[in-house]
Write a structure and sequence with these properties.
Strands 2-1-3 form a three-stranded parallel beta sheet, sandwiched between helices. The protein is 66% helix and 2% strand. Helix 7 runs antiparallel to helix 20 and helix 9 packs antiparallel against helix 10. The protein is built from 25 helices and three strands. It is an all-alpha fold.
């Protein structure tokens, strides 16, 4: 009897473990993945913003997908996204063939939300399986990516970022496997080539991060196979697209490098003393939404004066923040900073994780892409591709080393505080009623019809929006030379049934001399 009493606690432990295994085995892995994809997709669709006046190219992409000739979709103006528009043109035509006649803008937005959900799910699996992090750390790192302002905002937008990030993570998933085979190396090279053709910024990950990880793990043969497949596919496809588009006055090299806009797409970039602070601000905006600053009139005025050429003011000028935003946003930001600093201080008593080949590869991705973006574009939108790298590093170097189980549970507060802050700062102010494009275009969309012409000297974002939704012939004056303007005026006056002009025509932007 005494021996039975001694064995009872052990029997209870065994019984509890078996019950837990039975309970967890009832939910197969594929069901967890499907639930994650469904939940995240619904989250991104439901939390879609109403004010979309800050997006740069979304309406231009949608217009090209619906009406642009295929040669133009792969022309020099699309050098950075050679396959992005053709792929979505194919999806748009396929959906119309099935009887779904939605606008391309809405279709691409929904597909982008699904792809973003896939990227977050893959991020969690990547951290767990390839980097060997705990389940809680992996979920916290993936959640950090999911609710970072730039990723969250553009997860439901007609943009390239969701699919680019998914492919970047997929490259790492294949190439970072411990026993990567020759076939896996070939597959990684093929995915990398596809990713670079969809978004040229992925070239940093493809040609820097993955090769460094291969080299440090002494996978020289796998590296050779990977690079051979990547370079061969890029050469074949870019040459084929170059010959098909047949751009006038463009060499193959200038076509590949996007030389039609060297100030934006050049490899060298431009650096100045303001490069570092402007880059830090731009990157910070992709993690945390700085929109709440525009809720304070004095700060908003200074920001408009400091950033006149970024046209940020046009995205926020009409927004009217409630008093709750002014009160809650600073409190939530302080909570986020407090939790982050607390975790950093707790690392002092914990053993530090060594940088292995995979983490060094990710760190090289973050640094090299940051250097490229800093010299080429300080627009926060461009820095979204840095988010997976920084969250992998945060999860591995900050979250994972936390010692006790109680402290480790605190790491989930980081994405939770980030979620709350970005929801208040980024979305409460996002009402369609204050969308500048909607407000300025409302009368023209109601009155200008087929056969009419609309001239505007407003910024390019408004011009793209008006061109996409208006039935009239919309012409933007921005960037045109004096001779081009004269030709445009003569043609419009001759062909248009009615001519509408926006007020900015009387105060147009500077005109190039030639």
């Amino acid at each position: 009897m005494a021996s039975l009493k001694k064995e009872l606690p052990e029997l209870r432990k065994i019984l509890v473990l078996r019950v837990r295994r039975i309970q967890t085995s009832r939910v197969p892995p594929w069901a967890k993945v499907a639930l994650s994809l469904f939940g995240l997709t619904v989250f991104y669709v439901v939390t879609a913003v109403g004010n979309r006046s800050e997006t740069d190219d979304a309406f231009g992409y949608a217009q090209a997908i619906e009406h642009g000739p295929l040669r133009e979709l792969v022309g020099p103006q699309s050098a950075r996204h050679l396959l992005f528009l053709p792929l979505f043109r194919g999806l748009y035509l396929a959906l119309r063939w099935t009887g779904l006649h939605a606008r391309a803008y809405d279709e691409v937005r929904f597909v982008s939300a699904v792809i973003a959900a896939c990227a977050v799910t893959l991020m969690a699996v990547l951290l767990r399986r390839r980097f060997g992090l705990s389940k809680l750390t992996s979920l916290a790192g993936a959640a950090g990516l999911a609710v970072s302002y730039g990723f969250w905002r553009y997860a439901n937008e007609a943009e390239v970022y969701s699919i680019a990030i998914l492919l970047m993570l997929l490259i790492c998933w294949i190439a970072f496997a411990d026993g990567v085979s020759t076939r896996a190396s070939m597959a990684a090279g093929a995915v990398a080539a596809l990713a670079v053709l969809i978004d040229a910024e992925v070239a940093v990950t493809a040609f820097v991060a993955v090769p460094i990880a291969f080299l440090l793990r002494r996978r020289f043969r796998r590296l050779a196979v990977y690079c051979m497949v990547l370079i061969l596919l890029l050469a074949v496809f870019t040459l084929a697209l170059y010959r098909y588009s047949h751009p006038q006055g463009k060499t193959f090299v200038s076509y590949v490098l996007g030389a039609s806009a060297p100030e934006r797409h050049g490899l060298t970039g431009k650096y100045s003393p303001s490069t570092a602070p402007s880059s830090l601000i731009a990157f910070g905006q992709t993690v945390t939404a700085g929109n709440f600053l525009f809720a304070y009139p004095s700060i908003a005025q200074r920001l408009r004066e400091a950033l006149p050429n970024r046209r940020v003011a046009l995205a926020y000028a009409a927004e009217r923040a409630s008093p709750a935003v002014r009160l809650l946003a600073p409190i939530l930001l302080a909570a986020l900073l407090f939790v982050t600093v607390s975790l950093l201080l707790s690392l002092r008593s914990q053993p530090r994780r060594r940088l292995d080949a995979k983490l060094i590869g990710v760190a090289s991705w973050f640094v090299s892409l940051g250097v490229v973006l800093a010299g080429r574009n300080s627009n926060p939108e461009a820095w979204i591709l840095e988010l997976p790298a920084i969250w992998i590093l945060i999860a591995a170097l900050l979250f994972e080393p936390i010692g006790s189980q109680t402290r480790r549970r605190i790491i989930i507060l980081v994405p939770l505080c980030l979620l709350a802050f970005n929801a208040v700062s980024g979305w409460i102010m996002r009402s369609k009623a204050y969308d500048l494009n909607v407000l300025k275009a409302q009368w023209l969309l109601s009155n200008a019809g087929v056969g009419d012409a609309v001239l505007t000297a407003d910024n390019g974002k408004f011009g793209l929006y008006l061109q996409y939704y208006s039935r009239a012939n919309v012409q933007c004056l921005e960037g045109r030379t004096a001779s081009q303007l004269r030709h445009l005026y003569e043609r419009v006056l001759h062909d248009a049934r009615h001519l509408y002009i926006t007020g900015d025509i009387f105060n147009p932007p500077p005109i190039p001399v030639s």
